[in-house]
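Troubleshooting: if your tokenizer reports a length mismatch, compare your output against this known-good record of 275 residues.
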Amino acid sequence: MPVRRLLPRRGRRTVGPWCFADLFGPVPVAPEAPVAVGPHPHIGLQTVTWLLDGEQRHRDSLGSDQLIRPGQLNLMTAGSGVVHAEESLDYRGSIHGVQLWVALPDATRWCEPSFEHLHELPEVVLGATVATVLVGSFGGQRSPARADSPSVGVDLRLGPGTTRVPLDRSFEHAVLLLDGELRVEDRPVPTGSMAWLGSHRNGVTLRAEREVRALLLGGIPFEEPLMMWWNFVARTAAEMADARRQWSAGDPRFGPVATPLDRMAAPQLIPGIGK
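Known-good structure output:
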């Protein structure tokens, strides 16, 4: 599957607590040629799954078994440790979406894992643009999704023309272009890239010639030290090394997932990681 890494980027590792964004697809899938990611572990983060097209089946070590379609949100809080798999085993069509991670603050990063599926999310109409509030508050609407740090995540379906998008001055923000062509404050932004907006803004002007899909991400700058490696978000190399060792040894910290897919093997740690 084609994947574009939008975050982290050189010179910009986080946007508020958002620390990872992968744009995947579009790609055709079928039962005889599925897209699937076998069981793999996470610690210290939340995964946010948002589809533009297609459907995906989420299964995890909490016993969750959830189908997600466009307009719905899957949010998994890994906390101290969780395992999940993503499958398209019974689906025929195209799949296109974005996988996001939120770094958990120190106050909750060792919490018990949890999973939530939101079938409906609040929307805000800004002229020809429809904004769906995935996380946090935007335009007077609040998402019911769990948020452990002050943050916002908004899907923007921009129609042709100019849209003025309101921003929280206390947040730093970025716009991630998922599909189409967009001008951000009259600067062209290509598909699969991120426009960094910084902080202390009341709003941003976006212009599209035709329908465009984008994400607005933001939050209070994440000041805690942060380390990312493989599927882990931690504070020290020792935390990641312990998690890798426990995953490889089949430790109960990382439980089983009811899936026919093979468990992913952890790569070798980079020598001297974290030093």
